[in-house]
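Q: NADP-dependent 3-hydroxy acid dehydrogenase YdfG, please. Structure only.
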Amino acid sequence: MTRPWNRVVLVTGGSAGIGRATVARLAQEGARVVTCARHGERLDEAVGGLAGVSGVVADVADPADRAMLVDRVLEEHGRLDAVVLNAGLGWAGLLEDMPGEAVEGIVAVNLTGVIEVTRLALPHLLIAARERGRADVVAVSSVAAWSQVPPLTVYSATKAGVHGFVKGLRREVTARGVRVHTVNPFFVRTEWLARGHGHAPGSDADARGRLSRGIAPVRVAEAIGTCLTASRSRTVAVPRWAGLARLGEAPPVNRLLDAVLSRQTDRIRALAARSVDARTD
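A: Structure for NADP-dependent 3-hydroxy acid dehydrogenase YdfG:
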């Protein structure tokens, strides 16, 4: 079995949170990693000094940047063995309160970026599978892919889209040696909400006040590492009990959520506003 430390891995969104923890884990195991983020200073702070890691300033929502990113991997290493699609944004609030540009931005990063980076990488992953026995695509999704609830309606829609994309892609490439995984975390202690609401990244010290409540990013990074050595494609919840969110797709639970949550919109709006204000003021 091909181990991560013998491989060239592209990780999107590597300046903070899950992506940063993943890059550090893979570097420790000897992988050659190319990672990206939109802001160079924070990226340098995250990956500087990590052996075998290079950082590229790139926005996965931008078509030219996506192409440049894949080209950069090939220029540096001559091959690509795995892609970890981690870059993502969140926005908390009711749809009617959401600016149109926020909708476009979240869809561009969370869904279009995932599909398009995969499309650009796939010819090289298929070569890796033929020549070296395997290749991997790991998409960082969310339990929101299985149970869509306000105030994360649009975010949930993008993650449900990723879920559908991954299922379809598996049926295209599994027999050709490419494993396709999703890692679906519960709430994670990252800046995803502050960043989605327009707060620019500062230093690591500044970020501490922007973190959402949740599990440590390293736990998600561990699950990503496990996927990269798995013998078959996987769908993983982190922590495992978060897989209960799949019950949200069952008709009785689905109908109950429709009835209960739709009567709580004022409370949901207020709770979302307080959560955002606490992380962006």
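A: Brief note, in case it's useful. The beta strands are 8-11, 32-37, 53-57, 82-85, 135-140, 178-185, 235-238.
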